[in-house]
Specification:
Elements (H helix, E strand, L loop, with lengths): L3 H19 L4 H19 L3 H21 L12 H6 L1 H38 L12 H13 L1 H28 L3 E5 L11 H6 L3 E3 L4 H4 L26 E5 L12 H16 L30 E2 L9 E2 L30 H6 L1 H15 L6
Antiparallel strand pairs: 1-2, 1-3, 4-5
Helix pairs in contact: 1-2, 1-6, 2-5, 3-5, 3-7, 5-6, 5-7
Length: 379
Amino acid sequence: MPKQRDRFQEVLTEAIDDMMEHGFDSVERVQHWTRRLAEAAGESSRMSEQDLAKMLREELARTYKRMVEDGGLVKFHPGVQRFTIDKLKPAMRSELDRRIMASADLIKLNREQAIAKTLQRFQGWSTSIPPNGVSGEKKAAVKANVRKSLTQLPFEERRVLIDQGHKLTAAISEIVASDGGAIAGRWRSNWRQAGYDYREDHKERDEQVYLVRDSWAHQRGLVKKGGNPFYDEITAVGQEPFCRCYMVWLYNLRDLPQDMLTVKGKDALGEARAKVGRFADSEKAPKEQVDYVTAWADPETRCARCSMFVQMSAGEVGNKCTAVEGTIDASAHCRLFKPARAKTDVAPKVGAAADVLRIERVRALIADATSKAGLDLSR
């Protein structure tokens, strides 16, 4: 018994031999071979639904693991903490399952279309042969032309898997952006990569910032579109077939171009920075008084998790703390921080408004630390 992968080739050879011998002498002859070729094509490309689902799940699960479990999402969400991503795992797992189903449907559709094109080529060739089988074409060339769609099928299926992987990456990244409170995103294109068939309009979007409509900053009147449309007014990253662009999501006012800040937004950003400066000298506690430790091992209680931590943007020197003097390392730790925050489901607020909202809390913590140390800051 011939292998399934050879079955179509065997039937195709028989069909070509018969048609070249007899020619197009009846519709029934063409229909007979079309029917047999359809059956053989189905057998040669057939994969059980269980095997197909297994293949898709393994492929897309690797993408999911790389992004969610291995920390790949950090590339798209600078500053977003691990517990925020962990909280969203159920939603991201649902997106994974949805992508597996969509990929399976698309692969099945591609197979049906490939078989239909193969049969169409055979019918077109067979009905062009006069009765009595006059044809000068070589059999090998005919078979290659008829089989073209089926031979490309594995390549097309692989492309579907790769494309769905990019779509999964974009979708779970957008889940984090939506829940985490992103206010904008910076478009990144791979147009510089050799051999990548990029879209010209996507190249033009490279490094452009697009505002998220109805974000917390937009609702408070702190931001505006600037020179670009809202993100929902253009095609999203990964939306178009085989698009490999991605978005780096922005969460802070200080990360936006100046033309995207309203007067109110600029005032809020300036006020927050002024608050940082207001604590810069006499009101800040020395590092030794708060047991400051650089390169703290526990990521759950590092300075980057603290509401008092102020990460400086490009062009500014060093990170700062609203309560502790000097330059602050993002991976450091001090005893002013409340580790209990890590056990809640509420993400700490970030950005320019964070310090403004917590000034009183900062003052209380500083007073507690300095009084225990025997310091008097009232002088």
